[in-house]
Write a structure and sequence with these properties.
This protein is an alpha+beta fold. The protein has one domain. It contains 4 helices and 4 strands, in the order ααβαββαβ. A 4-stranded antiparallel sheet has the order 1-2-3-4. The longest helix has 45 residues. The relative contact order is 0.17. The mean pLDDT is 83.
Length: 161
């Protein structure tokens, strides 16, 4: 009986450290994959925020055309076209302020708003293009090399009134 136990313990002796070696190889790979998935999830979330901000901005712009209430030919919000507007989300102008509820989850200092009227006027049927751009810095920059990604969303709509 003692001889049998001695043989079994000798067979298992080389395996005692194998679990630790397997864990040392598997655990960093697993943690790297999980952190990469989290990084990707945050990047996709920022893309969704930027897309929603550009969509809402375009919706606001299409109702501020030449027929919008106000003096003849002048929209209520004078900064809404037809000249191109490009400012950071921290700007105190009407366009940035109206988009503030949609850019608060982004870093306003890294977010840029660009509005252009490709047809050059505010008439019904003309287009307005709204683009929101932000940058995303990896929160686990030591693993991804401190890389910064640019995330942008663009919406083009037709002026309705």
């Amino acid at each position: 009986m003692k001889l049998l136990r001695a043989r079994q313990s000798l067979r298992n002796a080389p395996r005692k450290g194998a679990t630790m070696v397997e864990a040392a190889i598997f655990l960093p790979v697993f943690v790297f994959i999980v952190l990469g998935m989290l990084e990707l999830a945050v990047l996709v979330l920022r893309y969704n925020w930027v897309s929603e901000a550009s969509r809402q901005g375009a919706r606001m712009a299409v109702v501020r055309g030449a027929l919008a209430p106000g003096t003849t030919g002048t929209p209520v919000m004078n900064s809404w076209g037809p000249s191109t507007y490009e400012e950071p989300a921290t700007d105190a102008g009407e366009i940035a302020k109206s988009l503030e509820p949609y850019t608060t989850l982004l870093e306003p200092s890294r977010t840029t708003i660009r509005v252009e009227w490709p047809d050059g006027d505010l008439e019904v049927g003309s287009r307005v293009r709204f683009k929101v751009t932000t940058s995303h810095e990896a929160f686990i920059s030591s693993l991804f090399g401190g890389r910064t990604w640019t995330v942008s969303g663009t919406s083009t709509m037709v002026i309705a009134h």
